[in-house]
Amino acid sequence: MNPHTELISADPAGIARAATLLKGGDLVAFPTETVYGLGGDARSDIAVARIFDAKGRPRFNPLIVHLPSVKAARQIAIFSPEADRLADAFWPGPLTLVLPRRPDAGLSDLVTAGLPTVAIRIPEHPLAQALLRAFGGPLAAPSANPSGKISPTCAAHVTEGLSGKIAAILDGGACAVGVESTILALDPPTLLRPGGLPAEAIEACLGTRLSSGGNITKPTAPGQLASHYAPRASVRLNVTKPAPGEIWLGYGPIGADFNLSPSSDLVEAAANLFKTLRDADRQAGPKGRIAVAPIPNHGLGRAINDRLRRAAAPRS
Ligand code: AMP
Ligand code: MG
User: Fold this and answer.
1) Range of the domain at 238
2) Are 261 and 122 found together in one domain?
3) Ligand 1 pocket: which of 64, 180, 215 to mutate (most atoms <8 Å of CB)?
4) How do residues 108-153 score in pLDDT, each as one tens digit?
């Protein structure tokens, strides 16, 4: 899709070029002080779907949203006094905070995987800062490597893993920290992932010990359980002929009630997934039934099927 991944130099013209690509929904890898991030517009379902596609991620796990300032972060998340204290002490820097997402945040559902929380980071790297300001919005940015591979700490690593799959790489040399950001959830303060900011520094700032054992793939706070995001309606998978009364969620050129992608485009289907599930659920009603057409199980189809299987699983 991007046969010629541009290597963009770290000067004002390069930053303007990278921002233009991002505004068009394309993906640009950029340096941060931790590792290179694979940036895409966090407000755009298609841009975020492209991130999962380029990385070959088998699951829609939530992505970290990068912003240039605490002021910008306040527009998308709700800050407790504890969050304020951490933001004052450690932002910009290698700390990611998981905070309640504002309903009017304007983020793609795919970037938070449908969760009511959002993971936010304010990077300190001058190029990341310049790019975020030139772009003027939130950037979703997981590490810029294929899923399951080692995180990239220089532009050549990104080229090695993602060349031909993304629009451009902003070359800013080597990353200073070289490991991912520390991820912290609050209420109570819980270390979700150790990283560039030592847990001891966070404990000293808050004057309390951090809980560990938080599970980033299965958030445990009330309202964060996976089944909470299942539709109210029951969900049946791989349905080529819906039963009477079922709302048919289609894929490909079929006459379904809703369609993830009439043109059989998995990136489009991923971009539409959360919104379409919500719409189908609303139409089906509280005791309704949703029947989902088969989705090819390759590329982004694997992540789509993973999510659909969870939606179809027995409710807890
Ligand atoms: P990466 O995409 O490799 O940068 O990793 C981001 C990490 O942040 C993943 O392990 C996610 O599960 C975690 N994460 C992002 N958003 C949230 C959230 N809202 N709640 C809990 N964990 C999150
Ligand atoms: Mg990663």
Assistant:
1) 234-312
2) no
3) 64
4) 999 999 899 999 999 999 999 999 999 999 999 999 999 989 999 9
